[in-house]
Amino acid sequence: MKKILLLGATGFIGSNIARELDRQGRPWSGVARTGREGSNSIYTFEDEEEILSALDSSSIVVNALGGLKPRNFEDDLNGAMNEFWAAMQRVLRLLRQRPPAAFLQISSAGTVYGEAPGRPSVECDPVSPQSWYGRMKVVEEALFQQFAHEKDITYTCARVTNPFGNEDHPTHGLVDVLIDHVSRKEPFFAHYHPAACRDYIYAPEMARALVTMIDRSLPGIYNIGYGVPVNLQELVDITKNLLPGAEIVVGTPSEGDVVTSSVSVQRFHDSFGLAIGGPSAKEYLYDKLSKVVV
What we know:
The chain is an alpha/beta fold and 294 residues long. It has one domain (4-290): NAD(P)-binding Rossmann-like Domain (Rossmann fold), CATH 3.40.50. The chain has helices spanning 12-23, 48-57, 70-75, 77-97, 109-112, 132-150, 174-183, 203-216, 232-242, 266-272, 281-290; strands at 4-7, 28-31, 42-43, 60-63, 102-108, 154-160, 162-164, 188-191, 197-202, 220-224, 229-231, 248-251. The strands form three sheets. A seven-stranded parallel beta sheet has the order 3-2-1-4-5-6-10, sandwiched between helices. Strands 7-9-11 form a three-stranded mixed beta sheet. Strand 1 (4-7), helix 1 and strand 2 (28-31) form a beta-alpha-beta unit. Helix 1 (12-23) crosses helix 8, helix 7 (174-183) packs parallel to helix 11 (281-290) and helix 9 runs parallel beside helix 11 (281-290). The protein is globular.
C-alpha cells in the first residue's frame, strides 16, 4: 500500500483527501501551516528534516497546497505573487533532495482553461486563464511537470472544478459561503455575469476520485468535476425562493472573471473507470437551506 505525503493537508481540498484516506484506513503524513502529532503526522515547512524523512518513505506526493485564493491576487498582486513563488520554490527544493516515484498536482479547472470554447473544455485544449490566479496555476503545473520530467517521476495533474460540501471550510466557494451566510442571517455579496456558469463537484466525491488517482498513478492531465455546468443565478434563485428574507447582493463581475466554465470529465471516466456521483450543487443547496430556521 502506498505511503502518501499530502501537501496542504488541512486546506479545503487537502482535508477532504485526508478524510477519505482515513476512511479507507490508509497511511499518510502531511504538510500544512499548523503541525499535528499522531498516527498521521502533519508537519510545517519549518520541520524540514521530518519532511525529508517522510519523503524517504513516501512513494507519492500529492500537492494540494492552496493557501491563496483568486481574491488575494486581486487585492495585492505583488504580495500574492511573492507568497506563491516562495512556497513553490520551497516545495521544489525539498522534492529535489528526495524525489518521490510519483507526483499528483491538484490544479484548478475553473481558472486555467478560461472561457469554454462553445463546448466543455477537454484536457488537450490550450489553457487561457483570464485571472492572475489562473495564470499562476498554469505556471505551477508547468514547473512541477518540468521537475517530474527531470527526475523521471510519474506526473499526474488533476484539474478540479469547484468543490462544495466541506462543512469544516464554510468560507470557501460560492455554494458553501452562500449557505453559511444566509444560515447565520448575514448578507451575501457575489459578483458574476448574469449568464455565468460553473461546474461543481461534491467535495467527498472529489476526494474519492483523487484517491483513486493516487492509487493508479496514471500520467497525464485529467479534469475532475460533475461534468454539468450550473448557472450561478439559479443557485441564488433557489436561495431566494426558500428564504425570501435572505439578503443577497449581486454586483458586477471582475474584469478577469470567466462567464462560462464547463469541462468534460470523459477522459477521467475512461481512464479510471469511476463515475462522479454525489448530490449536485443545486440539490445540496436546496437540502441545506430547507433546514434553515427562518
